[in-house]
Amino acid sequence: MDFNDTPEEAAYRAGVREWLAKNAPKSAVADDWEGGGDSMAASKAWQAKKAAAGYAQITWPKEWGAPGGTPIQQVIFNQEEARRPVPPNPFQIGLGMCVPTVMAFADEDTKKRFVGPALRGEEIWCQLFSEPSGGSDVAAARTRAERASDGSGDWIISGQKVWTTGAQFSDYGIVVTRTDPDAPKHKGLTMFWVDMHDPGIEVRPIHQMSGGSGFNEVFFTNVRVKDSQRVGAVNDGWRVSLVTLMNERLAVGGPSGAGWREFMEAARDVGGLDGAPAIKDQALREKIADWYVATEGLKHTRNRTLTALSRGETPGPENSIGKIVSAMQMQDLAATALEMLDQYGIVSDPQLAPLHAAFQASLLSAPAMRIAGGTDEILKNIIAERVLGLPQDIRVDKEVAFKDLPRGR
Question: Which of 134, 213, 244, 334 could bond 362 through an S-S bridge, CB–CB 3.0 to 4.6 Å?
Answer without folding.
Answer: 334
